[in-house]
Amino acid sequence: MERSILIIYTGGTIGMKQDPVDFTLKPFNFGQILSEVPEIRKFVCRVDTYSFSPLIDSSDAQPEFWIDLARLIKKEYANYDGFVVLHGTDTMSFTASALSFMLENLEKPVVFTGSQLPIGMLRTDGKENLISAVEIASAADEQGRPIVPEVTVFFDSHLYRGNRTIKYSAENFWAFRSENAPALADTGIHIKYNLDEIRYPKQYGNPLKISETLDTDVAILKIFPGMRENMVRALFATEGLRAVILETFGSGNAPTQKWFLDIISEADRRGLIIMNITQCIAGCVDMEAYATGIELKKMGVVSGYDSTLEAALAKLFYLMGKYADNDVVKRELNKNLRGEISI
Q1: Is 256 a known active-site residue?
Q2: Chain-wide mean pLDDT for the chain?
Q3: How many other C-beta atoms can be found within 10 angstroms of the C-beta atom of residue 247?
Q4: Are 43 and 138 within 8 A, CB to CB?
Q5: d(CA 170, CA 114)
Q6: 126: which of 115, 223, 258, 323 fits an S-S bond (Cβ 3.0–4.6 Å)?
Q7: How far is CA 29 from the centre of its chain?
Q8: Which one from 10, 13, 91, 278 is the annotated catalytic residue?
Q9: Alpha helices (H) in the chain, listed in sequence order
Q10: pLDDT tens per residue, range 187-226
């Protein structure tokens, strides 16, 4: 049976062409994508396209856009076997992380991709990324079930779980990395799927649900030498604040100055959610390794384990939108909901 894929163009470099007169980059009519990438016609599947209007510069991607994208996928879910989302690279990991939580009971591929060079340029990486993303989104096993029924990011020959990615480079074609989780697939002459790492539904046949309520009352504090008490106090005193992500040193360490620990302790007594993630690209928070981490744990700080900042933020938005009780949110943060942490 012929499979069907919906390509959703949200904006970004991949959908640009260079104007022959003034040489500026301008969006082209994405309905004509098959004329730009005729190789897609060779797939034994139906490929349709949908373009957001207006297009979204990824720097302007907001939770409202994530909700619109989730609604579109739900609306078209029964009509397609998989989805390819073309997105600007700057916030692709944020959007992919958010969608991984928002799309509940997902049984079909949602593959994010884009490019570092516009698809109309000679050396573009966009064509290869798009072609491979379509092939992965349409891939099925002998039972006709998708091989990768997850929200993923494909870039430069590597397929990663979306909520494990970070944008690593602004210049290289290998723009994304997933340091704490292996690739779900690698492309070369053949596509090699890492089946043991792919998450599959425990039970098939559940209807797709989307979580449309996101609570963004979150602040991020990156720990650095020379932090000033008045600035940290001002952040924790923000009106309406429910959660703070601490980006700490190494395996979850922070300063031991009394004023800093007092602020954390006071925030916990007020019921704030405080989540600890490492600033390191690779590695995991272990709040039992050093005295400072142990002190934070005693104060009620929740470990983010090896989650990325993007995944931590999206997880908080999702859980805080779902639960009004901060203690419930803290409990859920300790769970591996979508493969975002290694526990």
Answers
A1: no
A2: 92
A3: 19
A4: yes
A5: 13
A6: 115
A7: 27
A8: 13
A9: 33-36, 63-76, 92-102, 126-138, 229-236, 258-269, 291-298, 309-322, 326-333
A10: 999 999 999 999 999 999 999 999 999 999 999 999 999 9
